[in-house]
Amino acid sequence: MQIVRTVAALREAVAAFRAAGETVALVPTMGALHAGHMALIAEGRLRASRVVASIFVNPKQFGPNEDLSRYPRREARDAEMLEEAGCALLWAPSVEEMYPDGFATNVSVTGVSGGLDGESRPGHFDGVATVVTKLFNQVRPDIALFGEKDFQQLAVIRRFVRDLDLGLEIIGVPTQREDDGLALSSRNAYLTPEDRAKARALPRALGEAADALRGGATVTEALEAATKRILDGGFDSVDYVSLCDAETLQPVDSLPISGRLLAAARIGGTRLIDNLAI
Ligand code: PAF
After folding, report:
1. Which atom of ligand 1 lies at the shortest distance from residue 128's CA?
2. What is the 3-state secondary structure (H, E, C) of 237-254?
3. Residues labelled as active-site residues
4. 106-148: per-residue pLDDT in tens?
5. Residue 59 falls within a domain, yes or no?
6. Which domain holds residue 87?
7. How many domains does the chain fold into?
8. What is the CATH number of the domain that holds 132?
9. What separation in Å is there between the alpha carbon of 24 and the centre of ligand 1?
């Protein structure tokens, strides 16, 4: 697997794929790879003849009080995992390569990025939309794959790809989970063993809320019960538990045709998110 660190080297490598008639899938990541990322690479390999992965811990999507400096960085191990998974190319730019001096552009998506994490993490989705737009322009893939664990991020990306006529296909890949239901996330590495054991309360609360809704509970009853379950399970606070339309992510107060239950909660200084289809 080739590793490239400049836009010029990336363009040359992708041009060689194109000259050989290959199709290209992009899997954008911030590294600290786990089985969830590997599922994206595997799906990419099924859908395109070459998979390009990017590793870039994007400063623009971290707020001033967030975990940019302590975000796990393990490029050598990540590169081994990618190579083993059959990834053809790793794009691993520096911050200076991605955002050269004078960089002044911001991609901002209204509506779908407004609530939920958009409210708890102001500016986060501008940072995501800006870097993902750049990654798409740098690699120019046929398809790009993202995990459904970051469901709002996926909805924001689908929105700007449509709005800006970017002409690539966005594939959402189902969340990979531990045996007890906890969604795989690079941030799980922050959890102490004690908090890790408690963290299962989050997927359990969502599962129970989904069952309650399907069984006829009102949205208010189901969301309040889920919030209580998360707190009783050992979380310190709940940012939100919400039932939304799966495309617009606008909150709904009765069961929509296609809905998504989403939650974010904090435990021992770590913020975890999860979601379920309804
Ligand atoms: O999901 C992530 O890892 C990041 O938000 C992404 C999409 C790579 C953009 O930095």
Report:
1. 9
2. EEEEEEEEECCCCCECCC
3. 37
4. 999 999 999 999 999 999 999 999 999 999 999 999 999 999 9
5. yes
6. 2-173
7. 2
8. 3.40.50.620
9. 18
